[in-house]
Fold this protein.
Amino acid sequence: MSNITGNITPQPLDNNLLKQVFVHNLNRLYFGKCYLNTHLENLLRFASFTALQQAVQEFWDDIKKQITRMEEIYLLINETPSDKNCNPIKSIIRDEFCLDEKQSMPILTDMDLIMYLQLLEHINITSCRMLIMVAKLLKYDDIRQLLTECFDESIDNDQLFLIISKEYLSEN
C-alpha cells in the first residue's frame, strides 16, 4: 500500500513486535538516564549561580525518579533491561557540549549547560511521547501513567531551564 508521497506504508505491527519496539526504545531511554545519573554531579559543578545549580539538582532528582519508574515498567512487562544498542543516546550524553572547556565568561558555560540539558530533555520528551503511543496500543494503562509522569517532569524541567535562560538574557 502506498501513501501520498508514493512510499510504501508500513504494515501495522502485531503485539509481539510492538512489545519489541517498546522494550528497544525503553532500553535506550533507561540506559541513557542511568548513564546521565552517574555523570550529573560533574555537570552540577559547571553551573555558576544558585538558581541554575538548583535547577540542575531538580533535574537530577527527576532523573532518579524516572529511572525508578522505568524499573517498575520493566517489572510490569516482565522484561530485564538490556544495554544492547544504547550507544546513540549515551554518545549524546557523553558529549557534554564540551562543557569542560574553559570559557572566558561563566555565562557561556552556563548557557552551554542549559542548552545541553534542554537537548537531553527534548530527547526524553520525544522518547516518552513515542513510548506512550506504543503503550496505548499494547493497552499498558499503568505503564502509560508512569511514562506520562516522566514526560510531564521533562516538560517542566525544559520550562525551568527556559526561565533561567531568560533571567540571563533579560534587559536590566
User: Anything to note?
Assistant: The first helix runs from residue 15 to 44.
